[in-house]
User: What shape does this take?
Amino acid sequence: MYCFNTKSDVWWEQSKAKFGQLSAEVYRFEWSEIQSLAAMVQRTMPMSLMITGNSAYITIGEGQCEVSWTRLSAE
Assistant: This one.
């Protein structure tokens, strides 16, 4: 499961005990990085993506950004 918004920390603190009972992995994207990516997205666009470790490096047209994630729980 992936979460991303300004309140994901609060959501996780309230929900982590329930998710601990499931066989699931939960990851959090950094909200500011998601906003940067969203600002570049167009209906049609050339895009390049490189994933390394806990980050994705994205190039869209002339813009580029990094989107990283944090693992909040394990299976």
Remarks:
- The first strand starts at residue 2 and ends at 3.
